[in-house]
Amino acid sequence: MKALNENIPIETEQIDPQEVKQELLRKYPTKVARKRAKQIVVNKVAEEQEMQEIGANTRTIPGIITQRGCTYAGCKGVIMGPTRDIVNITHGPIGCGFYSWLTRRNQTRPDGPADENFMTYCFSTDMQEENIVFGGEKKLRAAIQEAYDLFKPKAISIFSTCPVGLIGDDVHSVAREMKEELGINIFGFSCEGYKGVSQSAGHHIANNGIFKNVVGLNDNVKEGKYKINLLGEYNIGGDAFEIDRILNDCEITVVSTFSGNSTYDQFANAHTADLNTIMCHRSINYVAEMMETKFGIPWIKINFIGGSATAKTLRKIANYFENEELKQRVEEVISREMPEVIKVRDEVRARCEGKVAMLFVGWSRAHHYQELFKEIGMKTISAGYEFAHRDDYEGRSVLPSIKVDADSRNIEELEIHPDPERFRPRKTDEQLKKLQDEGFRFKDYDGMMREMSDRSLVIDDISQYESEQLIEIYKPAIFCAGIKEKYAIQKKGIPMKQLHSYDSGGPYAGFRGAINFYREIDRMVNSQVWKHIKAPWQESPELAAKYACD
Amino acid sequence: MLLRHTPKEITERSALTINPAKTCQPIGAMYAALGIHGCLPHSHGSQGCCAYHRSALTRHYKEPVMAATSSFTEGSSVFGGQANLVQAIDNIFTIYEPEVIAVHTTCLSETIGDDIPQITRKAEADGKIPDGKYVIHVNTPSYVGTHVTGFANMTKAMVDYFAKSTGQKIDQINIIPGYVEPSDMEEIKRIAEMMGVRVVMFPDTSKVLNRPQTGKYEMFPEGGVTVEALKTTGDSLATIGLGRLASGPAAQALDTKCNVPCEILDLPIGFKATDRLVDTLRKTLGITVPDSLNNERGQLLDIVTDMHQYFYGKKVALAGDPDHLIALTEFLVSIDMWPIHIVTGTSGKKFESRIREITKDSPYPINVKAPGDMFLLHQWIKNEPVDLLMGNTYMKYIARDEDIPLIRMGFPILDRIGHSYFPIVGYRGGMRLLEKILDAILDRQDRDAPEESFELVM
Predict the structure, then answer these.
(1) What's A498's domain CATH number?
(2) Are residues A63 and A87 in the same domain?
(3) A154, A173, A193: which is the final residue of a domain?
(4) What is the DSSP string of A352-395?
(5) Do B448 and B364 reside in the same domain of the chain?
């Protein structure tokens, strides 16, 4: 398919998405095309119709130039990285620790100048050839001792990199021994990069590790009437700070955040909360599930991305606690905050209406940010996740039908039973039934596809080639992805917003975050800077010739 | 304080690296491979390696950095990565159509012992490598050496795979620029051009990682050394390798393989090291140094003499790569500044002795460690404060805590631009460095001066 002339505004409705799909697959070798065809779906939205099946959480095709990272990145980088008072030691050659050192923009704010913050440090065993040949356990043990001697932290965790698994270092037994010896909590993660098919496996491993080794260790009950955990919020660009501000104003207490701006102690008494709320379904739903089984804490899916989404989330939490005072308080906060959100939204909408966006990121962001774009009149015509599973696309109703393949079977599924002392149902069966009858939905996530428009293209694990083709065909006003994609897209003259790290921006969650995002997108899609790319003589080269003739 | 747990008291560490002043081999190999025209680097390992290297290079250059990966799973880690690499080669040539795929290994594929040449032969036998296209490779286990080693090894692989000696000498010089920025490579070529020297530079990332905004994206932009040019390196009159660690192995390999005599020089940072490069070119080719170059040298020295009072006696702490640090230390000492704490993550006894020799007249004791880390550097600074820091972006945490100005140089620079466009090598690069040093020192003096001695003319 030829790209449309760039001078003519593109009517995306005129483009046949089925044809686009064929175009994306055309150049691929047959086997690759067959596999990718399952991961590219033209969305059909009809009442009562079942979602189409999308290929997801399957192996990345070698050589295709993927966005995806590895298991270590998901475990150390995403989940455990934002916790400030655990000394996180990477057991491996230097690279893995180096690349995951402060690069994700997770913000943290220790209570005072004397409080612990190790996030600015990179700790590694820096394995050398002799450690690979003769084993690295001795060096790991020594490294833990040195970290303890220097910092006396509450906890030390160990992250295994690829060679660790291959040479058979037993990080867990080293952790156990050192825990006993030093008397602090020490635990390891078998998050070798090659496990699983993307960073998603690392999230699961991190969830398991933190659940097994930390959650439930501290029974101190925090003061507060309405106590929740905020799961899957990593405080990139300060999102969790804005969410905390709002919840605080509503007098809702956050016991722990997994894991933005978090501390070890927060994890340890997470089980004392009365509700788990999930922001990023993909990375953290495991912990919520396990906490429900073991401690009796129900979980709900929430979303703080967008002004209306934030309001909806607050009402949902208030409804859960079934307290009129809280409901009243929440309404007050919403009516205090929303006018400014609406004012900026409408102002920006006038300039953004009808423009086209594409979103290809991990997290639940490729889904939730569509709502922000929608609020300013922009249309998401194509989106996809980097490392999601089918339930993130099609909704959790599809869970029973997902086959567990060999790659997922490698990741341990913990067997969880109710804790004999700490299990406490937060609601009676009658209360639960009443809430559900009123339309309240527990542990539910409908996925991205249901909320996307008809004929939009849903693409899992998009390749560099497909991104380039999509841009040529649709010429979107903005493309959202990660750092690796950013500059190839901008070189094409199209603004690119990083939705992993937010570039240099944020917060984008909550009320103030929505305002920040509207303004940021306004800046990006309406800026004059993109119009200066061509020099005057490149715009109209024939003029020079005319002068020459004169 | 951002590094609030760093104690002043220094204790011996044998196992734990904290705040490294290095990273791993494969990223250096990837960077070098980007300096071949029409080349797609390929990481044979888990896909996270490739993602991390691309991200780090992208953040440093604010430019597209494309590379592919074998995307190992647990299965490939057990059974070997042959199927993954053969499939990757097929996909890359079919979809992205590069001229060259430059494969580097990782700690994963090295630990399981994948034999890349054997896999490449298999790909060739299966018809996956189109006629006239190349797959080259280098072994870059992450648990040996550092990013500098990876750069050196990939650069040597260019010689191993492409350099040929036809017996017919060509009137040209090979210059291996070292692990420097695209702007530095451009500047070295410009100096050679001013002297009328025909140069094959490899690798050459200029016009690859400092591309203009044109509204068009080209995966394989015009820059990079061509395979054709690489083939002729075996017939060149001589090779100049800049930076012993980064360029030595390739320069020596050319000598061994094709009998091209080589000279290994320091990176041309500062006037002394630049003088040696210019003089070597002059003597090798029997040419006269043009006035235009003498003029640039004179301008650099003019700044040195005009502003000497601000340089004199200032103490500096440095972190970076050995090749850079040697030349930089020499430059600073030559203008009467005192680098007193010097750390690199790359090991080298020769490095330490070279630094000690350059700084032998220092009035201060010199702390130098290779390999050391930035945690140790920070501790040294706490014990003996300095006036200026020079190093990569991670040093900004020390700079803020200790309230010392920082000049960013080295890899990675994640929070400022300039390094990909403006060189630090050559006389003009020296002028840029001095401008940066003066800006840092004089801004600090302006900030801290009492009102009565706040100077208008400096």
Answers:
(1) 3.40.50.1980
(2) no
(3) A193
(4) HTT-EEEEEESTTHHHHHHHHHHHTT-EEEEEEESS--HHHHH-
(5) yes
Residues paired with B319 in a beta bridge: B343
Distance CA A283, CA A275 (A): 18
Q: Which of A68, A104, A455, A519 is catalytic?
A: A104
Same-domain check for residues B342 and B424: yes
Subunit contact A60:B85, Cβ cutoff 8 A: no
d(CA B134, CA B115): 17
Determine, yes or no, domain membership for B302. yes
Query: pLDDT by residue for chain A (550 residues), tens digit each?
Result: 444 434 444 577 789 999 999 999 999 999 999 999 999 999 998 766 677 999 999 999 999 999 999 999 999 999 999 999 999 999 999 999 999 999 999 999 999 999 999 999 999 999 999 999 999 999 999 999 999 999 999 999 999 999 999 999 999 999 999 999 999 999 999 999 999 999 999 999 999 999 999 999 999 999 999 999 999 999 999 999 999 999 999 999 999 999 999 999 999 999 999 999 999 999 999 999 999 999 999 999 999 999 999 999 999 999 999 999 999 999 999 999 999 999 999 999 999 999 999 999 987 899 999 999 999 999 999 999 999 999 999 999 999 999 888 888 889 999 999 999 999 999 999 999 999 999 999 999 999 999 999 999 999 999 999 999 999 999 999 999 999 999 999 999 999 999 999 999 999 999 999 999 999 999 999 999 999 999 999 888 775 555 555 4
Is A73 a known active-site residue?
yes
Q: How many other CB atoms are found less than 10 A from the CB of residue A360? A: 25
Q: Catalytic: A417?
A: no
Q: For residue B17, is it within any domain? A: no
* Residue A191 is among the residues annotated as catalytic for this protein: no
A40 lies in which domain range?
1-67+353-395+447-504
Token digits for A59?
């192996």
Do A63 and A75 have their domain in common? no
Residue B308: domain span: 295-453
The answer to pTM > 0.90 is yes
Interface confidence, given as ipTM, is 0.97
User: Which residues 435-454 of A have a C-beta within 8 angstroms of B?
Assistant: none
Among B71, B72, B120, pick the best mutation site for testing chain A contact (most A Cβ within 10 A). Answer: B71
CA A481/CA B252 separation, integer angstroms: 43
CB of B214 less than 8 A from some CB of A: yes
What's the CA gap between A188 and A209, in Å, rounded? 8
3-state secondary structure chain B: CCCCCCCCCCCCCCCCEECECCCCHHHHHHHHHCCECCEEEEEECCHHHHHHHHHHHHHHHCCCCCCEECCCCHHHHHHCCHHHHHHHHHHHHHHHCCCEEEEEECHHHHHHCCCHHHHHHHHHHCCCCCCCCEEEEECCCCCCCCHHHHHHHHHHHHHHHHCCCCCCCEEEEEEECCCCCHHHHHHHHHHHHHCCCCEEECCCCCCCCCCCCCCCCCCCCCCCECHHHHHHHHHEEEEEEECHHHHHHHHHHHHHHHCCCEEEECCCCHHHHHHHHHHHHHHHHCCCCCHHHHHHHHHHHHHHHHCHHHHCCCEEEEECCHHHHHHHHHHHHHCCCEEEEEECCCCCHHHHHHHHHHCCCCCCCCEEECCCEHHHHHHHHHHCCCCEEEECHHHHHHHHHHCCCEEECCCCCCCCCCCCCCCCCHHHHHHHHHHHHHHHHHHHHHHHCCHHHCCCCC
A70 included as an active-site residue: yes
Token output for A477: 């006003």
Question: Taking CA atoms, what residue in B is nearest to A6?
Answer: B215
DSSP A80: I
Is B23 near chain A, with CB under 8 Å?
Answer: yes
Judged by CB atoms closer than 8 Å, whether chains meet at B54 and A70 is answered as no
